[in-house]
Amino acid sequence: MRARTRLGRFELIVCTDGTYRLDGGAMFGVVPKTLWQKRAPADELNRIMLGLNTVVVRTGRHTVVIETGIGNKQNAKMREIHRNEELLPASLAGAGVKPEEVDIVINSHLHFDHCGWNTTLHPDGSITPTFPNARYFAHLGEVEHGHLQLDRDRVSYLSPNYDPLIESGRMTLLTTEGIQTDSGIVPGVSVELFPGHTHQLMAIHIESEGQHACYISDLIPTTAHLDPTWVMGYDLDPLKSIEQKKRFYQRAIPEKWLVLFTHDHHTPMATIEWDEKGKPVAKPADDHLISVSE
Ligand SMILES: [Zn+2]
């Protein structure tokens, strides 16, 4: 577990699938290495260490899991490249969250490092839902994009993370029109589109008794990506990401949202403020943070 806090009547627990490594250049797009390496030191293969944060929301009536890490379906070559650790089941157990009690799973988008533990690969080769009693939610456009298997990003879309759930009727596919009419998943938990990283990237809002947290996913993957122009090379539409970050700050900063970072291992949650130069900076929620090894 990385952190635990209360939000109104809700409890938020940040669990982790462990750390993994991605190319630092790809994570910071056109930002020069001389600048980004001060915030994220690169290893000998130019990779930087990232976290894989899963947020569990206990609302009192529902147990919601936001994002499910990389999972255990990576082949040996991909595991060697990413050095991922497959820790989410242990992290959930350590936080006292049983897979059977989870009734809602939400994927912000369907890249391999956000929905891997939707399903579990067993030694006999079978694949089953990791959360046997859950309804899963993802955007229809993400599934359709993944199925296209485009040259640009097919390695990021692994259908065993979602196709078995769609085929068995466990996954609800949201549409943009549907979200515009009703963005709620359960009371206090809703989604909103922030396109740019992918065409249908969803943030997850969590609101209870006037307090507001937001899992902003790969729009702002770590606290090193707060500057609106520090967008990832992976983004399909980086100009849109810049616009959407500014749109996010217009509400997140004055309303003092607790921002949940998907890939920041050390600062999984923070509020954001403007500094004296007008740049967004993170104010870590230290008083809520319980740091442990998993
Ligand atoms: Zn992504």
Mean pLDDT: 95
Shape: globular
Counting DSSP H or I runs of 4 or more residues, the number of helices is 8
**What is the strand tally?**
16
The CATH C-level class name: Alpha Beta
CATH topology: Metallo-beta-lactamase, Chain A
Folded structure, characterized:
- The protein is an alpha+beta fold and 294 residues long.
- It contains eight helices and 16 strands.
- The protein has helices at residues 24-28, 33-36, 76-82, 88-94, 140-148, 163-167, 176-181, 238-252, and strands at 3-7, 10-23, 47-58, 63-66, 104-106, 119-121, 127-129, 135-139, 171-174, 184-186, 189-193, 202-208, 211-215, 258-260, 269-274, 280-284.
- The longest helix has 15 residues, at 238-252.
- It is globular, with a radius of gyration of 18 Å.
- The model has no long low-confidence stretch (mean pLDDT 95).
- Bound molecules: zinc ion.
- The site of zinc ion has 4 residues, from loops.
